[in-house]
């Protein structure tokens, strides 16, 4: 078997491309009226809490951890690095950082820092693992600092239609 190509050696130093026998296949183009990357409409979130900096929906007061899920021997008040905080079961439009172990007042926790998905401002932590047996009930919840959030004017569930509660746990002060 020879690796020497007689045609290439005999030709000039420029490379010529022979025409293909089959036509080039191309993907169909998109219609001009359809944009590929358009922002999806933000669904209406009742009792929404939004980022103070960019007003992106972060969570809702409806997904605040109920007091009934907090053990009786634990305090229902939470503190973050910048003040009052609350535990939530869901968040939207956020990014989670790489998990790390933090030593908190209640013991060691493995947590991921939560930042806003739009403006990347710090919002709180997701508690992935509690190393103290008495704190395991917090695992999987989001600890959001209320200093970085505010309650958006609610056109989904007007104030007159909201259920009244005697507890003001986790209130942002705008209700």
| Fraction of helical residues | under 10%
CATH architecture of the domain at 48-155: Beta Complex
Rough shape? elongated
Unreliable parts: 170-175
Named CATH topology of the domain at 48-155: Metal Binding Protein, Guanine Nucleotide Exchange Factor, Chain A
Cα end-to-end separation: 85 Å
Provide the gyration radius in Å. 28 Å
The count of helical stretches stands at 1
Q: What value does the average pLDDT take?
A: 76
Order of helices and strands: HEEEEEEEEEE
**CATH first level of the domain at 48-155: which class?**
Mainly Beta
For the report, how would you describe the main beta sheet? 7 strands, antiparallel
How much strand content do the residues show? 25-35%
Give the name of the CATH superfamily of the domain at 48-155: Peptide methionine sulfoxide reductase
Write down how many β-strands occur, each being a DSSP E stretch of 2 or more residues.
10
Question: Structural class of the helix and strand makeup?
Answer: mainly beta
Protein name: Yippee domain-containing protein
InterPro entries: Yippee, Yippee_fam
Region (Disordered): 15-40
Domain Yippee: 47-153
